[in-house]
Amino acid sequence: MGMFRMDHMTNVGYLRNGSNINNKKWTSDKSALAFSAVKEGIPEAVIADLDESGSTDLLDDYKTVVKNLRLIKSPGKGVWQKQDKRWSEAAVAVDDKGRILFLFCRSPLSIYEFNQMVLSLPLGVIRACMLRVTRRQAFLCIVMAFNWISVAAMKPASIQTTPIQTNGRFPMCSVFEWQS
Fold this sequence. Notes:
Blueprint: E1 15-17, E2 20-23, E3 31-37, E4 45-49, H1 55-59, E5 62-68, E6 70-73, E7 77-78, E8 87-95, E9 100-109, H2 111-120, E10 125-130, E11 139-144, E12 147-152, E13 158-163, E14 174-177
Antiparallel strand pairs: 1-2, 1-5, 3-4, 3-5, 6-7, 6-10, 8-9, 8-10, 11-12, 11-14, 12-13
């Protein structure tokens, strides 16, 4: 998730998984996706608006944290201005019930148009951030239960559902994303 440096290994912004810190630099991006809660009684995953007071303290309660470009800030306000550049988009959002939503738009839109479309749908999105930062076509793959689903920004639509072997351990969906 996120944008990586030319070495294809180091995230441009902050990225932590447990005690492994891929990049400790907090860039100016204003959203962070955090998941795998380390204590009971809190949501399994959250998106934090990093310009809100106490938001970085909240991230200490999660095993995995990745900083990404903010699309929509709470309470559901698009933060991008109109622009001419268009591309497909893979994003993650949280709704007004605390549910995590994975968003994918194959059609090239500006980020402003993407945000307006998402906010016009009856999803209740209050926060969203990019899963990828590139002008190439987005690709989203979600692994859950005993299947994985992959969606690519190609024509005709490329959607596959494939059974996979597991150890029976799936406390939460795993999400992988990359560009072709």
